């Protein structure tokens, strides 16, 4: 009976462990994860080649 109680308790605690922060610092302690970097915007010219977004005729992809 004790075994079934421990098994049920471990299954109930599983979602709590799975939602823990996946990032750790140098000492191994859980920390807040850094913000993800946003990919730079890319633009293409009329011919379909990559161009600077400020240039005339360039459209974001």
Bulk shape: elongated
Spell the H/E element sequence.
Answer: HEEE
Instruction: Outline the low-pLDDT stretches.
Output: none
How would you state the average pLDDT, rounded? 77
The number of helices is 1
**Ends apart, CA distance between termini:** 61 Å
- Radius of gyration (Å): 25 Å
Helix content: 25-40%
Number-wise, the strands total: 3
| Main sheet makeup | 3 strands, antiparallel
Strand content range: 5-15%
Which sequence of strands runs across the widest sheet?
2-1-3
Secondary structure class reads alpha+beta
Provide a concise account of the structure shown.
28% of the residues lie in helices and 10% in strands. It is an alpha+beta fold and 61 residues long.
Task: Pick out its properties.
single chain; 61 residues; alpha+beta; three-stranded antiparallel β-sheet; 3 strands; 28% helix
Explain what the structure shows.
- A hairpin with a 5-residue loop joins strand 1 (43-44) and strand 2 (50-51).
- The protein has a three-stranded antiparallel beta sheet, with no helix packed on it.
- The chain has one helix at residues 2-18; strands at 43-44, 50-51, 59-60.
- 28% of the residues lie in helices and 10% in strands.
- By secondary structure, the chain is α+β, with helices and mostly antiparallel strands.
